[in-house]
Amino acid sequence: MDTRRLIVFGGVIAAIFIGMTFFSPKLQPIPTSKETKPVVSVSTFSLLEAAHAVAGDAIDLHTIVPLGSDAHMFSPNPTQVAELSKSVLFVYNGAGFETWAEGLKNTLPKTIQILDMSQHVALEKGGEEHHDEASDDEHTHHHGMYDPHYWLDIDNMIKMTQTLDGEFSKLAPIKAEQFHKNAATYIAELEKLKSEYTTGLAECKNRTLISNHDAFGYLTHANKLENVSVIGLSSDEQPSAQTVSHIVELIKEHGMKTIFFEELINDNVSQTIARETGARAVPLQPLENISEDELKSHQTYLSIMRENLKKLREAMECR
């Protein structure tokens, strides 16, 4: 190829290159899909509240036990199990509270991480102050050796929050700083609530809490109160006539004016004892779950615990 023809050929190549540079479409970034949030399922209301306080809107949270139902009696249906299978993390209360969870967790996909929250809190043995000795074996069957209502000790609620902060930070490291900040804010609220309980129950004429269901052991222990219940740790137990008679005598002997019951379980026994003694039957929320009305009125662990404190102070004639 002579020099003239090489110049012409080079000019043509240069023109083609320049044309491609100026007239071809500019490269566009590949559209990214909408940010996908990790899906986390929790079993109970107290776990849902702590999880929401830490996660904010950074995690897609689901609760397994429907709001308004008795968490003791719940068992998931196939649709709920299918929804749970979409999670990357399943958090359950443990300590025997969800009898269904122990069997279910072994059938879930191996991709789902499972967190038994009872392994991260301070547990207390259950049923020790329940007065129906005849059914102790039944308590063991339902809940094992520990009382599973540990969220009613505010220190445990703090531990739950700290644990969820750590787990969520592993799931979404880029949001870890936000999780730490949210957890600190919620723990400050829990510390304030704990202080209100300490002060509010410091000086009371009567320091015995009588309830139909043995769900308040952690609350009474943390606040140096005596806990007496008609039935044990499981809400589906039936009290013996001897137990009911004992509670009636106790209320009359000490001039107690209130017997507490749970709104989400049958209150017939409490109402019967109230009629026998002249005491009032008053609902007290153990926060195993919340009712539809409480949900609609935006009640939280913090607001319900404060309402519980108000009722306790009135029942125990605190100054």
Structural description of this entry:
The structure is a single chain. Mean pLDDT is about 85; it is low at about 5-35 and about 130-140. Strands 2-1-3-4 form a four-stranded parallel sheet, with helices on one face. The protein has helices spanning about 5-25, 45-55, 80-85, 100-105, 135-145, 155-170, 175-200, 215-220, 240-255, 270-275, 290-295, 300-315, and strands spanning about 40, 60-65, 90, 115, 210-215, 225-230, 260, 280-285. The protein is α/β, with parallel strands linked by helices and about 325 residues long. The longest helix is centred in the middle third of the chain and has 25 residues, at about 175-200. The termini are far apart. α2 crosses α7 (about 175-200), α6 (about 155-170) runs antiparallel to α7 and α7 (about 175-200) runs parallel beside α12.
Helical proportion, percent range: 40-55%
Q: Please mark out the parts with pLDDT under 50 across 5 or more consecutive residues, or reply none.
A: 6-33, 128-142
Q: What's the count of strands?
A: 8
| Mean pLDDT score | 84
Number of helices: 12
Give the amount of beta strand, in percent: 5-15%
How many angstroms separate the termini? 109 Å
Q: Label the structural class.
A: alpha/beta
Major sheet, described briefly? 4 strands, parallel
Radius of gyration: 29 Å
N-to-C order of helices and strands: HEHEHEHEHHHEHEHEHEHH
For the biggest β-sheet, the strand order reads: 2-1-3-4
Please tell me what the overall shape is.
globular
